[in-house]
Design goal:
mainly alpha
Length: about 70
C-alpha cells in the first residue's frame, strides 16, 4: 500500500474514532443528567452503551497505528 492510500485510510480511522467518542460523550452526558435527577439505575443502564463505542474506538486506533507503522517499513 502506498503512503497516499495509507494516509487516507488512517484519516478515515481517526475520523471514525472521533465520531464514536463524540457519540460516547453524548451518552455520558445523558447518563449524568439521569444520575443528577436521581435516576441512578437508568444512568447506569444508559452508560452501558459507551462500552461498545469505546471498544470500537480502541480497535480503530490499533488499526491506525498498525497502518502507520507498516507504512514506514
Amino acid at each position: 500500500m502506498d503512503r497516499t492510500a495509507t494516509e487516507a485510510a488512517i484519516k478515515v480511522c481517526l475520523r471514525e474514532i472521533r465520531r464514536r467518542l463524540d457519540d460516547a460523550a453524548g451518552i455520558a452526558k445523558a447518563a449524568d443528567v439521569c444520575a443528577e435527577s436521581g435516576q441512578i439505575d437508568k444512568a447506569v443502564e444508559i452508560s452501558h452503551d459507551i462500552e461498545q463505542l469505546s471498544y470500537e474506538a480502541s480497535r480503530l486506533l490499533d488499526a491506525a497505528s498498525l497502518l502507520n507503522r507498516l507504512s514506514k517499513e
